[in-house]
Amino acid sequence: MIDFVVQSNLMVYSLTMSGCTECSNKTGCTDRKGPMLDQVYQSLERIYPSRIWGEPNDEARFGSGICMHEGQDLAQEIETTLKASTVYCSGSDEDYCDYIYILCMGRDPSLMKIQEKQLSMPDDLETPLHEMYLRICLSNMARLVGVQQVSVFLEQEDSRYFIREVPRAGVYDAPLLPRFQQLVGVFQNYDMMHVDFGEISEPPDGFDHSHYESLYANKPDVANYLFYPQPSTMESISELRR
Predict the structure, then answer these.
(1) Beta-bridge mates of residue 149
(2) Would you say 66 and 194 are in contact if contact means Cβ atoms under 8 Å apart?
(3) What distance in Å separates the CA atoms of residue 236 and residue 242, rounded to the nearest whole number?
(4) Phi/psi of residue 237, each to 5°?
(5) Cβ(192)–Cβ(143) under 8 Å?
(6) Cα separations in angstroms, 236 against 64, 128, 149, 183
(7) What is the tens place of the pLDDT at every residue in 18-48?
């Protein structure tokens, strides 16, 4: 499990909400977004009948999301299909999702694999170290998945090592796009709806956000109701257990 230690002075907000301006496949994407958003908002209404952030209906969400075993099976299939190192990570107690990290730049064993599986650090590992991942968010609330690109840095302070994660709101860098496109097809095989984080980066209308604002000094996006509470581009730091 990854222990997220959120530091308020490390909040970063992305100003780029969509990476499709130059895309040649916008028509097909637009056709897909209608059913995607319909399922997202139907899930919101079902899980949050009170329309208050932080107060999901436990009966409504029980068994509706993606379970651990499905996530682990998906991680194995992705590793085979994409021929890339993957690691399944359970979310924290505050999250509404679990994660799959796909290594796109770096070496195996990756930092996230060393952290999650509590492996010994290679003797030749030097700091600072930078790795790049596609991070899949598997909702426990509904059969929804989102994908973000994440930079992971290994940093050292005296004899202690820390992992710093810097996520972006979606997937933007060209070298990551071919693998990202492959993922969408794999999700369909598991009856999971891929959700574009750029399309759920606004607060839902008619919902009470006051409790969220007291915690994060900002209104929650739709993603914060269905995946995790923190802003989607907030950095996190965890100590690497050796």
Answers:
(1) 134
(2) no
(3) 19
(4) -130, 135
(5) yes
(6) 28, 16, 14, 25
(7) 344 344 444 445 456 788 999 999 999 999 9
Under 8 Å between Cβ of 138 and 97? yes
* Residues composing the chain: 242
Quick one: which of 212, 233, 170 has its CA closest to 29? 170
In whole angstroms, give the CA distance from residue 180 to residue 112. Answer: 19
Please tell me the distance from the alpha carbon of residue 226 to that of residue 44, in angstroms, as a whole number: 8
Interatomic CA distance for residues 80 and 8, integer angstroms? 38
150-160: per-residue pLDDT in tens? 999 999 998 89
Helix (H) or strand (E) holding 132: strand 129-139
Taking Cα atoms as reference points, which of 77, 218, 71 lies closest to residue 140?
A: 71
Q: Contact, 89 vs 116, CB < 8 A? A: yes
Six-digit token string for 221: 């996006």
Token pair in block for residue 109 = 């064993």
